[in-house]
Write a structure and sequence with these properties.
Layout (H helix, E strand, L loop, with lengths): L17 E13 L4 E7 L2 E7 L5 H8 L6 E10 L12 E12 L16 H6 L1 H4 L3 H23 L3 E2 L17 E3 L7 E3 L5 H9 L4 E9 L11 E10 L3 H20 L8 E3 H8 L13 E2 L1 H4 L5 H4 L3 E7 L7 H12 L9 E5 L5 E3 L7 H10 L7 E7 L1 H18 L10 E5 L4 E4 L4 E4 L14 H4 L8 E6 L2 E8 L4 H10 L4 H15 L6 E7 H9 L29 H7 L6
Parallel strand pairs: 3-5, 6-9, 11-17
Antiparallel strand pairs: 1-2, 1-4, 2-3, 4-5, 7-8, 9-10, 10-22, 12-13, 13-16, 14-15, 14-16, 17-20, 18-19, 20-21, 21-22
Helix pairs in contact: 4-6, 4-16, 14-15
Bound molecules: aspartic acid.
Aspartic acid binds next to strand 21 and strand 22.
Length: 581
Amino acid sequence: MYRTHTCGELTMADLGKEVVLCGWVQKSRDLGAMTFIDVRDRYGLTQLAFDTDDNEALRVQARALGREYVIKVSGTVIERSSKNIKINTGEIEIKVSHLDVLNASKLPPFLIEDETDGGEDLRMKYRYLDLRRNPVRNNLVLRHKIAQAVRSYLDGQQFIEVETPVLIKSTPEGARDFVVPSRMNAGEFYALPQSPQTFKQLLMVSGLDRYFQLVKCFRDEDLRADRQPEFTQIDCELSFVEQEDILVLFEGLINYLFKKIKGVEIGELPRISYADAMRLYGSDKPDTRFGMQFVEVNDLLKGAGFPVFDNAELIVGIKAEGCASYTRKQLDALTDFVKRPQIGATGLVYLRVSEDGTLKSSVDKFYGQEQLKAWAKAFDAKSGDLILVMAGDAEKTRKQLNELRLEMGNRLGLRDKNKFSALWVVDFPLLEWDDETSRYHAMHHPFTSPKPEDIGLLDTAPGKVRANAYDMVINGTEVGGGSIRIHDKGKQELMFKHLGFSEAEAQKQFGFLMEAFTYGAPPHGGIAFGFDRLVSIFAGLDSIRDVIAFPKNNAGRDVMIDSPSVISQEQLNELKIAVKV
Ligand code: ASP
């Protein structure tokens, strides 16, 4: 038998028991008369003690153990003399009678401890060692728990988990596909799913009524902290539902998860339209852990002779409470922040309401005290507040002010990782103009239905048509999104036409779906959550990499297995692929 207990479970209640433990050597301390070894497994640490009563051969063996050796020990549970109440097993130790080395270990390239000396690259190369560390492994445990809870909630709501294929044909979700050559069909390629979108809709045509899947999706995009080329979705689809049904059901899911995993009560999710989100936060994924909503002041500040404001399409600002005491240096730092190329603003205007009520702005030349007063009033500013204003093209300025708002949120400590603020953003535009290709694209995807009352606008003002589409946002991160779908062939054809597909193209790519719609497709809709993002929010982490067992780096590489890699000429020949780089 390898073990009677794990390294995390023995306590004073087990005193006197003969036990067998297995694990890795975390640490050893040789105090001359005594030798102590901490043995570790997934469940915890147990102290092993070897003293002068033990036979010398055993002590020699113990002293020879290196870090991360895999050992098996037999012995008796005894009370410790110096106790460690921080850990479960801290009051006992094992008086070892027998020790086997199951496997030796080279000295690991970094410390396998909660705080490690290993850099990111090294830890990725030896990810299997990194995963021995508590904080990293705990993320996987959390991920597992959330996955179990998701399954339990959805199962309770009559959803069934169905696996959809991984070798498919391109699904247009706006990113590039990863493709896989087909040996048996030379010159032809499968695509890996960007999502199971068309399959889940077909499952609705099949009458499955409620589908879900924890599913890998693949998108060949540039990577960021919250993106990986392969990621996991909680993908769901339901029949005979309206948007309201979906919002209520998945509000239920998120409440269930927070309650079960974190003991946090989320409650009813506020809803905000896309238009309001953009107007009040300059973002379709507002971080609502803090207020600082935008205030538009065109009427108030135009016409005073300050050219930047006079020529602006939009003058808009935020109020940073208690920041009137910001020094010149701090204000300059904020100006530099918005002028960074990533943000690209031309400048920042401020109005300070000092503690004594004095008003002072960076554009005092153009505004008298009365105007400054009105300006402060528009923001409901009190003594001690600072108002930051930006101006220019409406869309760009809102985006820039969004960045500044988030930065101020960071500076003021308003983005607490232990606070959770969730909401629905609804009424997204159906279409989005793309300057590069000079045409409209589906903002969500081409299967999303327009709001019936807006269909008339498709020909006249396509950009104004709203969709039955919604996103769930938590702490400024889009964690999920979905829509009510088109389930009618004619409407789907019309949609493709508006997206610039020729009839032949639409038929070639999506003929199968439109044909399915002619065999009794029920009204349906769905949603998909980014599972990695959700887990990282629960874990209080910025990067989804930390909640993925074997993630890829920023260049899309797995540095542990060294992939992607070249394949042999034989494989290429078999696939009839000629490679020119
Ligand atoms: N397939 C969509 C996505 O991956 C989600 C949905 O519409 O259900 O974003």
